[in-house]
């Protein structure tokens, strides 16, 4: 499975409840930020995945963290971002 396929797999797994949010955010940012060859992606895929990677990298489930405005994303925001990404890329 290519790194690009792994990113899509993670999106679908989160959408279908087959992966926990913490595991999703760690795996998604690791693959997108460190492992993938960006030449594998279309311009649209790169833009959508880059935005989602930024969100995933700033995920927190800490109530204290989430009190800080415009710093962290909560689980609902990540899930909404994934749903939006899947619609954009379909």
From TrEMBL:
Highest taxon of the lineage: Bacteria
Name of the protein in its database record: Colicin D immunity protein domain-containing protein
Q: Which organism is it from?
A: Lactiplantibacillus pentosus
